[in-house]
What we know:
Blueprint: H1 16-41, H2 44-51, H3 54-58, H4 63-94, H5 99-114, H6 117-131, H7 140-167, H8 170-178, H9 183-213, H10 229-240, H11 244-275
Helix pairs in contact: 4-5, 4-7, 4-9, 4-10, 4-11, 5-7, 6-7, 7-9, 8-9, 9-11, 10-11
Amino acid sequence: MTAEPMKTAAPPGMSRRRRRQLVLGGQYGLFAAAVLVVVLLADWPQLRANFANLDVARELFPDILTIGLLNTAVYTGLGFVLGLVLGLVLALMRLSSVAPYRWFATVYIEIFRGLPLLLIFIFVSVGVPLAFPGSNVPGGVAGQAGLALGLAAAAYMAETIRAGIEAVPRGQLEAARSLGMSYGRAMRSIIIPQAFRIIIPPLTNQLVLLCKDSSLVLFLGVTLEQRELTKFGRDLAGQQGNTTPIIVAGICYLLLTIPLSLLARRLEARQQRGRR
């Protein structure tokens, strides 16, 4: 009886986890190498002089806050309020059983979501005075900015609000009607409040977008005291022959948008925890 030869085990192949670690390590290495190349090749003294000149930045304060930042907040707030009110009306029209209401809301939403915001600003500043001779938008530049931003925002908010209303269980409306509530009262007291709790995060994101879109106010022909952040930074950059004012204006935008973005994430996370 002959003994069988011993079989040597083949070396095991590389595990999937190990391959993933090597791939990620290679990606990190490439990213670090690209950053190192940029750091070594960039002309940092020239960049600092043109984009981070502290002497130029000091001259912007406090006007960039009391004029640029304040006007940006005012224009954004006016546009958001108008967009929210008009968006709610359009959402209810979209859900209406009356066909002409649905048609009007659908056409409005499709048109204003499809038009560039710049064209809406031009229409408000030029088209309204031509269409209604002798009339002006109340509030001057602030009114025109709020109207243009609100008309555009309403189209997006209408769809958001409609989705929120449809997300509320239909049984709640039926239960309210069975208790003797009218359709309008049930919507005001029960459905719409619940819908707004659902759509607060996307509405907050819409506020962030409006804050950035307010930069188009510069096409309305504003005065020195009516400038928002983009116009303020661009004018000062032209006067100083330096790009630092535009960078400072960008930082001021972040002072508005980052807290709003964080708030939207927290509200969304809280909403998801409430659904579990």
